[in-house]
Amino acid sequence: MGRISIKWLALGLALISLAFVVIWNRSYVDSRVDEIAIRLELLRDLRRGALETYINTAETELRFWSLNKSMQETVQSLDRGWASYSRLEGDPGRALQDLYIYGNPYGWDELYKLNDAYDGSRYSSQHAKLHPLTKLFVLERGYYDFFLIGAEGDILYSVVKEKDFATNLLEGDFKESGLSKVFSQAVEYAADDRVAIGDFTAYAPSAGTPAIFMAKAMLGVKGELLGVLAVQLPTDRIAEIMNYDAGMGETGETYLVGQDLLMRSNSRFSEVSSILETTVDTDTVELALSGETGVQFTDDYRGVEVLSAYSQVQVGDFHWAVIAEVDRQEILDIAA
Question: What is the full DSSP assignment across 161-196?
């Protein structure tokens, strides 16, 4: 065999070896992408399941309290106490705020500690009986606040005693709030025995921070509306559910996006809350909000290419995108 033939043979063998290495590397990278895609899908589904469990549990507890005979009697008793203040003071809301907010001996962050205003009123007597139980319920179950609202929209009772306490949700300063919306929706759903669930909105009484409310109508034996029971869910709890990052590497994260394309949980890459602050207008969010489920590469809200697993979670009458992602570069680094 001549020298030229040997050189071409050697070159051919080298090219074959190189092609084999390239194909093997590509196959290895593809297998790693597939593994990470499966992991992202699992994480996405686990976070969605945890969120659904949390919402369903809150819904069940609302149903329980709304059907509790003692709680039904309590809302009627508070309503009568409100009416008594109306006759005596003319403005029951202001009178009750003076007692339980502005005249409260505890600091602004500890107003919930006052059980009884000791003014000798029917309202305060009922408040003193109710408050230790509901205060314990809120603290133990991790809710932000618990409300009893009269049939006419008066906030007869709350645990925390923010500035929404003793106001009217149909006519007062908070008539456009998320709490007002779920109150009206709960009244509308009363005949169907449905729980009203709101979306995240900024809530002025809670210093303008995002809040989500759930409410359930309370009906008497003849089907008459006695009032509405509502809870304010803590944003921190939902953030904790979504910020679970075990097995997510250096860049992996899971998060929620609403129909307005704003985040409903916090970004792993932000030092401040991104709820209702960060816009996520990506291909996978659009697919998720349209009801599709899958995994694909896309640019995320930071402009970084990621592998994104997407799906949708339905909560009440609205839905959010559930996203689990990891940077493409980290996948390549792992596969290297």
Answer: --TTTT-BTTTSTTTTSHHHHHHHHHHHTGGGTPPE
3-state secondary structure 321-332: EEEEEEEHHHHH
**CA–CA dist 169, 173 (Å, integer):** 8
Task: Tell me the pLDDT tens digit for each residue of 259-299.
Answer: 999 999 999 999 999 999 999 999 999 999 999 999 999 99
Tell me what the mean pLDDT of segment 89-104 comes to. 89
Q: Are 275 and 200 in contact (CB under 8 A)?
A: yes
- Take residue 146 and report the two structure tokens written for it: 């618990």
- Look-up of token digits 């030229």: 4
Phi, psi (deg, nearest 5) at residue 258: -85, 175
Residue pair 71/229 in contact by the 8 Å Cβ criterion: yes
Q: Is the pTM of this model over 0.90?
A: no
Distance CA(100)–CA(167), nearest Å, equals 13
Amino acid at 261: L
Q: What is the pLDDT of residue 19?
A: 47
Q: Which 3 state secondary structure label does DSSP give 5?
A: helix
* Cα angle for residues 205, 60, 315 (degrees, 5° grid): 65
Q: How far apart are CA 298 and CA 263, in angstroms?
A: 18
Is 230:212 a contact under the CB 8 Å cutoff?
no
Query: In this structure, are residues 177 and 169 in contact, taking their beta carbons and an 8 Å threshold?
Result: yes
What does the mean pLDDT of the chain come to? 89
Question: What is the chain's percent helix, strand, coil content, to nearest 5?
Answer: 50, 20, 30
